[in-house]
Amino acid sequence: MPELRTNNMPFKVGQTITVTGIPDADAADKISMNFGPNDKDIALHINLQFSTNTVVYNSYEGGVWGQEVFGKGFPFKQGVTFSITITFTFGEFVITLPDDRTVHFPNRLGGTEYTEFFSDGKIRIESLMVKQ
Fold this sequence. Notes:
The chain is mainly β. The protein has strands at about 5, 10, 15-25, 30-35, 40-50, 55-60, 65, 70, 80-90, 90-95, 100-105, 115, 115-120, 125-130.
């Protein structure tokens, strides 16, 4: 499935973004949603791994992946619409999952604005909504 990519959608400290999407019915691994300052670095990488029912969070900077953070629980289902909400603060991303569980992931790149979003894998992104 083709990825969705935006390269001029400012996501700034103090804002919240809601991502709504549907993983394909046969989705497995390598389904991701990514936010970053350019097309080479990723401040927040959210990877849905259906084969292990795991959500993995990470960052990518200068060609190097950071330390993976593994979420608890897996509130995603193949073929079922989900929404996640991400609040961007100076020090972290606060991610609210479909089951209302909250994950705190550090803003490792230290930026105050990220303009790139892209998804990868068998997922259809239905909407991206940014709020102040």
